[in-house]
Amino acid sequence: MILYGIPTCDTCKKALKSLAAAGREVRFRDIRAEPLTEAEIAEIVAEFGERAVNRQSTSYRGFSDFLKASEPEDQIKAQPTVMKRPVIRDGESWYLGWDEKVQNTLL
Q: Which partner from 3, 4, 6, 64 sits 20 to 30 angstroms from 92, CA to CA?
């Protein structure tokens, strides 16, 4: 299982802690230190579409009008922290966020 996020994200921290406590083996991928490849961004956007971008984030609000109007792939490529977090890949399954539904599935 791979959890994509940033180390300062409280939701990522909660997810990592809960998954570890449940005995799940998780590799944390800091998307700042180890940027997503174009193929990974394409996979995430193919799975989640527009939901992959956190439009409430300060990163998104700081975008120019041009970037706000661009495709989600371009937005994530320009500023990885605009991606909604965490993104979790468990084998071939993808999960976005750390809500009750995701927790019930993975824990």
A: 6
pTM for this one?
0.91
Nearest C-alpha neighbor of 96 from the set 27, 43, 39, 32: 43
Length of the chain equals 107
Determine whether domain 2-106 maps to CATH 3.40.30.10: yes
Q: What is the pLDDT of residues 3-31, one digit of tens each?
A: 999 999 999 999 999 999 999 999 999 99
Q: Phi first, then psi: what are they for 31, rounded to 5°?
A: -75, -10
What would the pLDDT profile of 64-83 be if each residue is shown by its tens digit? Answer: 999 999 999 999 999 999 99
